[in-house]
């Protein structure tokens, strides 16, 4: 198939109104061999369900655009708020370079092309406004993507960290499946940053989390961040019910706690595979991944494993985790 | 299958595949096992009606592609006989743009196209733009029947303005062999994604069933949807094929049950 495809980023679409933006110019300078196509509105390329997300994923393009509204969103009820009443998330990049076969992005967006919103000053303006309304805020940055892997395209993380540090009442989580996050975070003041990693058994990473770092690579990266004196968040999510999964996840837990420094684990969240049912239906139109064709039950429009299956498993996993980490540091979704 | 839309017999000459003319009252349509070609006539209205017509007639599958191949003009005469793939098409009257999906590589240089309501003079043209009379309509209508990544437009530069078109200047030996080979491969690769073999099996099995043609078509669509949803359909298909009815009423009731399921 690869001989038939254009290489990734062979074309870059640029909204005319951001053609002279400093971030746009910086990104384009890194893709001198790419053909630039100027457009009026990113939705002309991105929108429309007459596209095949999975096929496009093999040859992603970049769309550089200006976000016009909805800069900061209320945190999703499908994500843990870690006991923060003011939970928000923000993305200035849509879509991911990784190719996880269960990812909700394939059901949420019509296109797998990467959209980069470069008017980050407006994001920062909205964050400032929100910071005045709440005592403490938990902000998840880059939820609709894996932000650290875009650092070579543009180092957004540094700019966001600088902004958050100006506002003392925001803790910003950045979550990744990469093995480069320690490089991204080095030499930065990250007192207000919660570095977080998603972890799964290597067997499931190979099967379902294509193009991501393998488990060992992620653990090494986590350890390096811990060695900087920083507490990390771990996320065993999504838990996939397949085969002898309890055994696999217990082996994963063993590996995590044998390798990492327990003192520098801030907390750990666990959650079963879950997805809005409407996204699941869209995902099935273009994906053959067996994981999305399970017999899910739908409660409040969210498709997930049947409650009975989850209850048995979760109790077993929590009991096992308790050997290594205090119960109050385990968050379940 | 590759659906090819050309606006004139001269443009059809570039398609070197062996095609047989089929009997059709409304359009000149040619085919072989891999191509269905329609000569639409010049202009947006003709190309729109021809695409709708050919798609209604043959009902393209998800892995079928559509290609518009035709002449275009450009300002610089040095580009006559050059072939370009179109990446952007603009409607001159609406002043609106549409963008082709560029997932696949055809190994051709790219250009933007402007679709005009009438042939254009050289002094009205902008540099580096191509001009035709069908492109925008072709793309707009094709998107109703095909996924975006399966729509292609290739233009051969025939002239540099309204009064300069002369078939004698055009090299008719240019074939699109390599392009067609790529298109066939693209379509074949997508068979698996869209479960085309399974769909063909459903269609061939349904021939044996005791339903009317219209009912069979609707049941096939339903079963295909189940298939894409990851549902197991072999038992249901088996039951449908073997089902016998005492009368039409019974048959129609059963049909309704399947469609509503």
Fold and architecture overview:
In chain A, the strands form four sheets. Chain A has an eight-stranded mixed beta sheet. In chain A, strands 2-1-3-8-6 form a five-stranded mixed beta sheet. Chain A has one domain (2-332): pyruvate-formate lyase- activating enzyme. With 333 residues, chain A is α/β, with parallel strands linked by helices. Chain A contains twelve helices and 18 strands. In chain A, strand 1 (11-15), helix 1 (22-29) and strand 2 form a beta-alpha-beta unit. Chain B has 261 residues and is α/β, with parallel strands linked by helices. Chain B has two domains: 2-189, 3-Layer(aba) Sandwich (Rossmann fold), CATH 3.40.50.1580; 208-260, no CATH class. Chain B is 37% helix and 23% strand. Chain B has eight helices and ten strands. Chain B has a five-stranded mixed barrel with strand order 5-9-8-6-10. Chain B is elongated. The chains are: A alpha/beta (333), B alpha/beta (261). The A-B interface holds A 1, 4-6, 10-11, 13, 35, 37, 39-40, 44-45, 48, 50-52, 54-56, 58-59, 61, 281, 284-286, 288, 292-293 and B 87-88, 97-99, 101-105, 110, 143, 146-149, 182, 185-186, 189-190, 193, 228-230. Chain A: It comes from Geotoga petraea. Chain A: InterPro entries: SPL (IPR049539). Chain A: One of its GO terms (cellular component) is endospore-forming forespore.
